[in-house]
Backbone:
C-alpha cells in the first residue's frame, strides 16, 4: 500500500523540480504535501500527518501571496532560457546520483535501536500521563525541544518583521473590491465553516494527550480560520502589535509551567495529575503557534501586498 | 546491495537528492526555496521509515503492542513548524531582493549586485 503512495510522492517531487512554468509550483506543492501526509499516516504517525496537512495550507497561501508580489515586481519577459552544453546539464545529475548511491551504501547494516522505544512506551503512562506517547515525549521527556521550538518561532517572527519593507509605518490602503464578500456562496460557506473549525481546533488541543493532535495542530487550525476570514472579507482589523505581545506573554507562561511541573518535580506542592500538565501545555502551545502564524501571515499580506 | 535498507529509506534518499539537484541547478530563487521545503519532508520521511515494519500501529492508546517508534515522530512535529517558519523567512527575504533588483534569478541578481 505504502509503495504505491511512495511512487506518487516521487513523481510529484519530480514535477516540482522539472516543471518550467513557475506558477505550477503552487499546485505541485499542494499535491506533494497531500501525498506526503497520506504517507505519514500509513507510516503509523497520525500526529505528523495531521501537522503536515494543516501546515501545507499555510505554505500554499504564503506562496500565493509571494507569487502575486513577484509578478508585479519582476519583468518576467526579460528572462530567457539560456542554452548550455549538454555536459553542464549531465554533470549535476551524475553528481547527485553518485551522492545518493554512496549515502545508501554507507547506511550501517544494523537493526534500528529499540532501547529508547521500549523504555518510552512502557514508562510514559506513569511518568508523564495521558495515552498518546508522542505528546508525552515532546512535552515530557524532550521538553527542551518544545521550548526552543517556541523560541525559534519568536526569532523568525522578529526576522520577518525586520525584513518587511514598510518599516514602522502601518499604511493600509483601502482596497476597492472587498474580497469575495460579494459572492454569496463563499460568504455563506465561511459562516457555516467557522464554528466547525473553532470546535475542531479546540478538540485537537483539549484531546491532544489521548488522541492524535495537540497544540501545534490546533494552533495552526486557528490560524487557518483567520486566514479564511481574511480571504473572504478582506478585514484588516487585527492589531498585530497586540498579537506579538500576547505571543511573548504566552512564551513566558510556557516557561513558567515547564519550570513548575518538570524542573521542580511534577506537582509536589499541589498534587496535580500529569493530564492537567499536558492539557495546559497543549492549550498554551496552541495559542503560541496560532499567534506566530497569524503575525507571519498578516505581515506578509498587509505589508507585502500593496 | 541495498538489502539492509528498507523501501521507504530508499525513496526518501532519492527525493532528498532530487531536491538537492533542484537546489543547485534551478535558475529561479523561488524554486530553490521550494526545493528546501521538499528536502525537509524527505528527511522527515527518512526518520519515520527507520525501524518501521508492515503492520505497525500508531503509538496511541492503552494497548501498545507492536506500536511504531514514538521518538522520531515527536522530534519531527517540531521540525514541521520550524520548516514553515524557514519558508516564510526565505520568501520575505526574496521579496526584499525583488524590490531592490527587480529580478529573482540567481544570475541576474548576481550580476546586478556586483555592479
Residues:
Amino acid at each position: 500500500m505504502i509503495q504505491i503512495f511512495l511512487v506518487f510522492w516521487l513523481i510529484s517531487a519530480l514535477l516540482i523540480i522539472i516543471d518550467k512554468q513557475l506558477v505550477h509550483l503552487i499546485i505541485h506543492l499542494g499535491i506533494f504535501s497531500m501525498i506526503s501526509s497520506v504517507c505519514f499516516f500509513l507510516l503509523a504517525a497520525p500526529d505528523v500527518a495531521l501537522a503536515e496537512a494543516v501546515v501545507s495550507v499555510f505554505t500554499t497561501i504564503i506562496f500565493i501571496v509571494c507569487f502575486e508580489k513577484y509578478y508585479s515586481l519582476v519583468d518576467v519577459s526579460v528572462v530567457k532560457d539560456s542554452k548550455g552544453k549538454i555536459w553542464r546539464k549531465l554533470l549535476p545529475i551524475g553528481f547527485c546520483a553518485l551522492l545518493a548511491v554512496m549515502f545508501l551504501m554507507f547506511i550501517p547494516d544494523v537493526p534500528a535501536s529499540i532501547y529508547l522505544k521500549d523504555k518510552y512506551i512502557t514508562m510514559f503512562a506513569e511518568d508523564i500521563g495521558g495515552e498518546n506517547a508522542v505528546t508525552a515525549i515532546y512535552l515530557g521527556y524532550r521538553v527542551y525541544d518544545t521550548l526552543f521550538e517556541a523560541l525559534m518561532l519568536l526569532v523568525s517572527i522578529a526576522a520577518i518583521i525586520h525584513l518587511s519593507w514598510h518599516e514602522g509605518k502601518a499604511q493600509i490602503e483601502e482596497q476597492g473590491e472587498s474580497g469575495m464578500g460579494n459572492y454569496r456562496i463563499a460568504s455563506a460557506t465561511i459562516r457555516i465553516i467557522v464554528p466547525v473549525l473553532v470546535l475542531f481546533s479546540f478538540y485537537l488541543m483539549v484531546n491532544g494527550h489521548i488522541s492524535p493532535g495537540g497544540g501545534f495542530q490546533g494552533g495552526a487550525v486557528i490560524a487557518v480560520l483567520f486566514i479564511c476570514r481574511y480571504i473572504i472579507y478582506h478585514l484588516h482589523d487585527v492589531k498585530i502589535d497586540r498579537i506579538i505581545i500576547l505571543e511573548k506573554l504566552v512564551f513566558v507562561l510556557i516557561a513558567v509551567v515547564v519550570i513548575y511541573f518538570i524542573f521542580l518535580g511534577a506537582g509536589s506542592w499541589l498534587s496535580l495529575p500529569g493530564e492537567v500538565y499536558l492539557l495546559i501545555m497543549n492549550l498554551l502551545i496552541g495559542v503560541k503557534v496560532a499567534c506566530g502564524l497569524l503575525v507571519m501571515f498578516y505581515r506578509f499580506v498587509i505589508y507585502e501586498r500593496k | 546491495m541495498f538489502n539492509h535498507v528498507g523501501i521507504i529509506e530508499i525513496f526518501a534518499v532519492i527525493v532528498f537528492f532530487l531536491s538537492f539537484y533542484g537546489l543547485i541547478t534551478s535558475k529561479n530563487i523561488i524554486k530553490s526555496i521550494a526545493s528546501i521545503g521538499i528536502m525537509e519532508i524527505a528527511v522527515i520521511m527518512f526518520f519515520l521509515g527507520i525501524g518501521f515494519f508492515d503492520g505497525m500501529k500508531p503509538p496511541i492508546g492503552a494497548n501498545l503492542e507492536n506500536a511504531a517508534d514514538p521518538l522520531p515522530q515527536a522530534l519531527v512535529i517540531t521540525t514541521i513548524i520550524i520548516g514553515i517558519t524557514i519558508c516564510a523567512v526565505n520568501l520575505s527575504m526574496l521579496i526584499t531582493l525583488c524590490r531592490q533588483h527587480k529580478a529573482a534569478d540567481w544570475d541576474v541578481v548576481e550580476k546586478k549586485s556586483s555592479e
